[in-house]
Amino acid sequence: MTEFNGFALGEYGLPGPLRDELVAAILAGAKTATSSLYAAYGDEPLPRVGEGEILLDSAGAPVAVLRTTDVELRAFGDIDADFARAEGEGFTDVAAWRAAHADFWGEHPLSDASLVVA
To answer: Shortest CA distance to 79 belongs to which of 32, 42, 28, 115?
Structure first.
C-alpha cells in the first residue's frame, strides 16, 4: 500500500469484477468491515483507529475517503456471522465467509489459528 498526502491508498480485492463489487458495496454502505491476513502485512504497519484511507476503484481512481473505526486481530476460526455479514459481500454464514477467504488467501498456509486483521 502506498500513500498520497499522508493517506494510505486502499485497494480492496484484485482490480476487475471483485474490486468493482467491493467498492460498490462500500459506497452503498453495505460493506462496513473488511479483513486481511495478518501474515500478508510483513513489515507494513497495521491500520490504526482514526486513520483515513483513500479508496481506489479498479482504474486506480479515488472514489472515497474511509476512516478506520476499529481494528482487531482475530483467529481465522473465531470470525463470527456478524462480522461475515458486515463485510457486505453477501455471506449468509461463517462457512461461506471462510471458504471465500481461504480461496482468496490461498498463497498463505491457513488454519483456524491464522491471524486475521479485522
So the answer is: 115
d(CA 10, CA 52): 10
Given a contact cutoff of 8 angstroms between Cβ atoms, the answer to whether 67 and 54 are in contact is no
Beta bridge mates, 66: 53
Q: Which three cell numbers stand for residue 82?
A: 456478524
Instruction: Quote the CA–CA distance of 75 and 72 in Å, as a whole number.
Output: 10
User: For 67-82, what is each residue's pLDDT tens digit?
Assistant: 999 999 999 999 999 9
User: In the structure grid, which three cell numbers stand for residue 59, read together?
Assistant: 482504474
- Whether the predicted pLDDT of 89 surpasses 80: yes
Are the C-beta atoms of 22 and 13 separated by less than 8 Å?
yes
The answer to whether the CB of 74 falls within 8 A of the CB of 115 is yes
Which cell numbers hold the place of 29?
454502505
> Is 12:19 a contact under the CB 8 Å cutoff?
yes
pLDDT above 70 (res 1): no
Q: State pLDDT tens for residues 8-51.
A: 899 998 999 999 999 999 999 999 999 999 999 999 899 999 99
